[in-house]
Write a sequence for this structure.
């Protein structure tokens, strides 16, 4: 059995830390604190932290070829320059369904930003969708009938996409065309229950396996492409997303949340809301960048 040796990257406890992204050009790990509308960057050499603040929640984001960030807010996507602090609107999506906001998003091997929604209405109906957004501002609906879109990740060759619905709960595998962003051959590979952990954010390793945050069970689960559970790792908090980084791709980062945890859960998992750093036994797929140049 492998060990990940997770420990806090920084001492701060966040309400809802999400979307860890390794920035190889600057050797830093980025993550967002969704309800506070923040993107954080931590320099892995010095430990210095920088925070960029937005006027509303930050659902997710990705890195751009230009050095900017592509950022999903509640009902819109913007291009943000971390050097100047200036935002440029790209597209508005989903505002016609007020209970649905944007959620998990990542840049795919096609150079587009993929972002899905989460329905925050009391009935939690499957009213959210998954979008593919390109630099022209075109937002194409790719998957419908989702409750809480999560878990986007691609294999290194760009031909397989994983996608989850945390409230489904399910994990789907798609055939992916990295040239066009076309998806096909949808296959449901797993339906994890609360005991294994409902599938939140995800990442892929260089062996083609899928790492899924089992948010309801304090687990990080590693699945084979066919959905077979290979390994399950304990996390001392409710994990929201894993991310691989570092020079060799084997540094593992895991975000977690504090919001919504009971007093009993917080007593049992006092590190809830921590961004963890550990060491993996396999390298992860490098970060893809949004084609804005």
């Amino acid at each position: 059995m492998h060990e990940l040796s997770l420990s806090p990257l920084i001492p701060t406890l966040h309400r809802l830390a999400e979307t860890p992204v390794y920035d190889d050009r600057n050797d830093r790990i980025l993550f967002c604190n969704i309800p506070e509308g923040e993107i954080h960057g931590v320099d892995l050499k010095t430990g210095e932290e920088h925070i960029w603040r937005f006027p509303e929640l930050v659902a997710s984001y990705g890195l751009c070829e230009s050095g900017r960030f592509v950022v999903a807010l509640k009902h819109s996507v913007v291009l943000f320059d971390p050097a100047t602090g200036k935002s440029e609107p790209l597209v508005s999506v989903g505002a016609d369904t007020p209970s649905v906001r944007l959620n998990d998003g990542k840049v795919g091997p096609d150079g587009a930003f993929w972002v899905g929604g989460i329905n925050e209405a009391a009935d939690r109906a499957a009213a959210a969708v998954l979008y593919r957004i390109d630099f022209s501002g075109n937002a194409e609906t790719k998957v419908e009938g989702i409750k809480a879109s999560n878990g986007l990740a691609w294999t290194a060759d760009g031909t397989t996409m994983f996608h989850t619905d945390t409230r489904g709960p399910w994990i789907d595998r798609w055939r992916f065309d990295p040239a066009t962003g076309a998806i096909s051959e949808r296959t449901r590979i797993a339906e994890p229950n609360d005991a294994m952990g409902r599938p939140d954010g995800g990442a892929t390793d260089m062996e083609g396996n899928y790492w899924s945050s089992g948010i309801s069970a304090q687990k990080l689960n590693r699945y084979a492409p066919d959905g077979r559970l290979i390994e399950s790792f304990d996390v001392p908090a409710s994990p929201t997303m894993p991310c691989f980084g570092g020079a060799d791709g084997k540094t593992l980062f895991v975000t977690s949340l504090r919001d919504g945890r009971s007093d009993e859960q917080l007593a049992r998992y006092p590190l809830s809301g921590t961004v963890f750093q550990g060491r993996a036994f396999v390298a992860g797929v490098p970060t893809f960048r949004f084609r804005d140049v």
In short: The chain has one domain: 7-279. DSSP finds one helix and 24 strands in the chain. The domain at 7-279 is CATH 2.120.10.30 (Neuraminidase).
